[in-house]
Specification:
This protein is of the alpha+beta class and about 190 residues long. It has one domain: tt1808, chain A (Alpha-Beta Complex). Strand 4 and strand 5 form a beta hairpin. The chain starts with 11 loop residues before the first helix and ends in a 5-residue tail after the last helix. The relative contact order is 0.14. This is Putative restriction endonuclease domain-containing protein. It comes from Methylomarinovum tepidoasis. It holds the Pfam family Uma2. InterPro entries: Nuclease_put_TT1808, Restrct_endonuc-II-like, Uma2.
Amino acid sequence: MTQQARIPYITVEDYLEGELHSDIRHEYVAGQVFAMVGSTLGHNRVVGNIATFLNSRLRGTPCSAYVSDVKVRIEAADAFYYPDVVVSCEAADLSALYLTEPVLVVEVLSPSTETTDRREKRLNYQKLPSLKEYVLVAPDAVQVEVYRRGQAGWEEVEIYGPEDTAVRLVSLDLAIPVAEIYTGVR
């Protein structure tokens, strides 16, 4: 006999309350929650390198870079994600639980998240009117993909490799050296 199980629907309010008390992080998509897996030391090093570089260059501006523990809400997708690095220039209350207007999102790829980062998250993040660039970084090879919003929508992608000296971030009018991204990884 076939057995059926109901997948419980979680409200946004219950999700946010649960995240305040949980020992692990969860992402939220349309009433479902998904536990986040840990990362490798290389993944963590790349995230730290990017966030450190961005925060040093953004000091004195209205923008800030945040790392893995800050959620982004995408109301149009009924989703909350924890990007590896997110830059926002919104005037957010420092006690806020999430950001809603990022200009830049960076995801460092891993075998367990790459498909989701390339498809679901990329398409959902692109629903944010404030977002100008979505960046995917390979932690184990020198490859950075920058998806950029143009005049007619998400029409541009630039791929940077070991032969490139810097990754251009138009959203922040910055270029981050490729060597800076991968410092201590290789």
